[in-house]
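4.2 Preliminary Data

To establish feasibility before requesting continued support, the project team ran the inverse folding procedure on a target of 647 residues. The structure was first converted into the token representation described in Section 3, and no sequence information of any kind was made available to the design step. The complete token record follows.
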């Protein structure tokens, strides 16, 4: 789900309410000129200058601060630059300084990063973009800049004249910008030529040769939404790439799911890059409609997309810096030699199947949700659904609509949020109203990305305090039906569960009313002891009769897919994907500050992971593609905070 502008506002409001103490001063330019005055004199000067800055209009404050940062960075003075930040500060960088996706937390971390990167990055030409805004003392401004090899943009938030959060993101590689807008290709040579090659002939040649006469520079394993969006980004950057998909058609990863599936997120949040959904597109997209859109997209974006193709094995030659990948395409074994491989097999990896004692004696059918497509064959039958998160709810509804007698087995509490509530308070910057205010999808993506993960819990806790009060009667009825509700270990709700474990939540689009009304049964707070020939025996001695069991128990980490295709050794070297090291169950520490292994260099050279929901795939596909393009063109990409290095 998305985080709204309201949640940002909630965070800063909570900061103000708590009257957090931060140095109300800012150093202008190089502070080394004041060293002789001692700490007391310097602090006095900073206090005066800070007060002068606070008296300025927001845009003037932002411009003054940015100018001070630019001078410090140009001089290579990491200490002076660091003094422009409050003590409790954050700098989130997407490639521009670190060639990584990394958040520096605190002044010391920022100083260490600048000491390591300034000499090669050479940032310059910092300029504000538009007018700054101010809300109760928090000044927010957008800006652009450039480095030795790239163009960038970012967002600053100033508190008492100093920077609280800084966000920097790469937009283009110098000399390798996307050919779009005014730089779009002409598409034709206005000249008679007997040797002319038409567009269709050129596409046929490319399709024929790539993977045989010409090797792809990048192989994308997985042709669902993530692989398709990354393929489009790579295509626009001129990176020869092949996307392989096990299904028979693009979009089948959506079409093959249960018949009633509809996206829970709204259309404004789910656009694909380059081609947004048309204005008459429904707010919530049905699965088959999404499948058709993805199939259309692969054609229009001219992707080299191999269907009915399975990746058998992959190995990396450390000396030659090349992968050898065996794929099976429509029964034919083909060897590919890409420089990079990207696993885009979903947000997670293989299905997680739980051990059910007595499964060998159970007389009914046992399926994982990944195998479930329709409840039609379960009409009139008793079905137990193990799991009470999104898939568990959706499968239960589909079974109920098909005429099955459904009981949901809830093994742990679930965070439930009503869809209409979330639309009103959680998706404010992804909406028709936001567009009317000039907040495009691209701008909203940047706003979301600009808040460090460490600051999300406080803002989300405030948001869910509002949601819990607003829908208190709904939650009382749900609890009254025997359904266990929580809002996470620290009351931070759905978004933090999504980032930490990717499980344990449901956006209510109808299942909760069926539970409240008793149409879908619930067994909660009691463990499964074993299966019997005719059902499930619980720890309390009770038994549930069942003709079939659907396990909606989630998926393993994507590195388990690597174990099956590359090796166990490489999978373990890379480590698990997803989670931020929060320390809650399923997301062990230490603190990462970013999602593990996602969209950035991993411990295995030339191996990448890409995935997430439609919004995350849309936004981060750009940064995966930029990293691969830079390596293809020989651009220096010194990674700060490389995997395995504690920084």
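Position-by-position output of the design step:
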């Amino acid at each position: 789900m998305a985080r709204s502008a309201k949640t940002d506002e909630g965070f800063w409001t909570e900061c103000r309410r708590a009257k957090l103490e931060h140095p109300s001063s800012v150093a202008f330019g190089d502070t080394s000129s004041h060293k002789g005055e001692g700490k007391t004199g310097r602090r006095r000067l900073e206090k005066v200058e800070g007060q002068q800055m606070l008296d300025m209009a927001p845009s003037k404050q932002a411009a003054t601060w940015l100018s001070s940062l630019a001078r410090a960075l140009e001089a290579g003075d990491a200490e002076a630059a660091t003094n422009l930040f409050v003590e409790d500060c954050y700098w989130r960088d997407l490639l521009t300084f670190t060639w990584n996706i990394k958040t520096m937390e605190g002044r010391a971390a920022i100083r260490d990063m600048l000491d390591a990167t300034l000499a090669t990055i050479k940032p310059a030409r910092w300029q504000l973009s538009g007018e700054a805004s101010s809300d109760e003392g928090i000044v927010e401004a957008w800006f652009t800049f450039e480095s030795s090899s790239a163009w960038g943009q970012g967002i600053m938030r100033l508190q008492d004249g100093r920077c609280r959060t800084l966000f920097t993101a790469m937009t283009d590689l110098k000399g390798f910008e996307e050919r779009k807008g005014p730089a779009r290709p002409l598409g034709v040579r206005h000249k008679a030529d007997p040797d002319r090659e038409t567009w269709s002939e050129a596409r046929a040649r490319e399709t024929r040769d790539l993977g045989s006469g010409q090797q792809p520079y990048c192989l994308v394993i997985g042709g669902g939404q993530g692989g398709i969006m990354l393929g489009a980004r790579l295509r626009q950057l001129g990176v020869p790439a092949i996307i392989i998909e096990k299904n028979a058609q693009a979009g089948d990863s959506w079409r093959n799911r249960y018949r009633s599936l509809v996206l829970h997120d709204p259309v404004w949040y789910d656009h694909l890059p380059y081609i947004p959904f048309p204005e008459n597109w429904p707010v919530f997209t049905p699965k088959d409609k999404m499948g058709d859109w993805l199939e259309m997209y692969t054609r229009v974006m001219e992707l080299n997309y191999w269907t009915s193709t399975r990746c058998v094995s992959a190995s990396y030659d450390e000396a030659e810096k090349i992968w050898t990948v065996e794929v099976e395409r429509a029964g034919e074994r083909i060897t590919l030699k890409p420089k990079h491989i990207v696993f885009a097999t979903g947000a997670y990896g293989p299905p997680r199947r739980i051990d059910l004692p007595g499964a060998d004696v159970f007389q009914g059918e046992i399926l994982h949700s990944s195998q479930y497509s329709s409840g039609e064959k379960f009409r009139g039958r008793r079905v137990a659904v193990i799991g009470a998160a999104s898939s568990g709810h959706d499968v239960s509804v589909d079974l109920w609509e098909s005429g099955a007698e459904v009981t949901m087995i809830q093994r742990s509490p679930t965070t439930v949020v009503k869809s209409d509530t979330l639309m009103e308070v959680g998706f404010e910057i992804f909406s028709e109203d936001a567009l009317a205010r000039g907040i495009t999808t691209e701008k909203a993506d940047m706003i979301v990305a600009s808040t460090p993960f460490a600051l999300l819990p406080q803002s989300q806790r405030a948001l869910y305090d509002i949601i819990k009060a607003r829908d208190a009667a709904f939650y009382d009825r749900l609890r009254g039906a025997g359904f266990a509700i929580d809002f996470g270990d620290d009351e931070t709700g759905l978004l933090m569960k999504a980032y930490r474990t990717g499980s344990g939540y449901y956006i209510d689009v109808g299942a909760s009313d069926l539970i409240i009304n008793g149409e879908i049964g619930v067994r909660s707070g009691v463990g499964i002891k074993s299966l019997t020939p005719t059902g499930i025996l619980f720890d309390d001695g009770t038994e549930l009769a069942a003709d079939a069991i659907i396990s909606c128990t989630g998926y393993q980490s994507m590195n388990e897919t690597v174990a099956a295709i590359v090796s166990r050794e490489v999978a373990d070297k890379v480590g698990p994907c997803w989670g931020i090291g929060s320390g809650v169950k399923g997301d062990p520490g230490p603190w990462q500050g970013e999602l593990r292994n996602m969209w950035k260099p991993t411990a295995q050279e030339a191996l990448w992971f890409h995935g997430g929901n439609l919004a995350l795939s849309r936004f981060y596909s750009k940064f995966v593609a930029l990293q691969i393009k830079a390596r293809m063109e020989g651009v220096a990409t010194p990674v700060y905070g490389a995997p395995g290095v504690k920084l």
